[in-house]
Amino acid sequence: MISSRLSPTTTDRRRFLLGTALGLLVLVAPLLDLMAAATPPTAPAPATEVLFMRDIVPILVQRCFTCHDANAKEPGGELRIDTYEGLTKGDHPAVLPGEPDESGIILRLTEEDSSSRMPRDEDPLPKAQIDLIRRWIQAGAKFDGPDPKTPYAKKPAASAASTTSPHPTHPPAAPAGTKPEPQPKAGKSEAIDVMKP
């Protein structure tokens, strides 16, 4: 029959192991603190990565394509920015990867003289957009599109409101201070007749 009480040798062994473990912990704890103090702090988490196609191209299309794409009516110099290759190649590339303060695009966007600053004859880009371009260049101006030689975007199409159409999409607005007259609803045959030339 097995006794429910532990023999003195088993109890002694448990006390010895527990004491040894606690003793080691007391000795090791200060060493862990020293090691933690000697480890350099980790760098802060980097800001969200700036992507060319998602972040930079929309700025270029909106603010620069008027003068610097293949279809520009009055091309700005010989700089084409509608391709990544156009931004980074040539005798005077607009972008020098890793060197934002030497990149022509940053120099022209931040020019103090308004006659030399880009975009010419327009308000300067907001500081946040310039900083975004600067961060992209500093990080190496990586290209994330399909082909650096292919134009990556087109000018935004004219809005539907600015196009001339023989069929207005809505009735003309009533003069100020007057109440518009109710328009009769057209049946199917009248609606089709309206679309005939």
Please provide a written account of the structure:
The protein is mainly α. It has a domain at 52-138. Helices cover 40% and strands 0% of the residues. The N and C termini lie far apart (110 Å).
User: Can you give the mean pLDDT?
Assistant: 73
Q: pLDDT below 50 for ≥5 consecutive residues: which ranges?
A: 41-45, 155-172, 188-197
Shape: rod-shaped
Structural class: mainly alpha
Number of helices: 7
| Topology pattern, helix = H, strand = E | HHHHHHH
Q: Which sheet architecture does the biggest sheet show?
A: none
Terminal CA distance reads 110 Å
Primary descriptors:
mainly alpha; rod-shaped; disordered C terminus; 197 residues; 0% strand
What's the structural blueprint in terms of helices and strands?
Layout: H1 8-38, H2 52-63, H3 65-68, H4 84-88, H5 104-109, H6 127-138, H7 188-195
Helix pairs in contact: 2-6
Question: Could you give a quick summary of the protein structure above?
Answer:
The chain is mainly α.
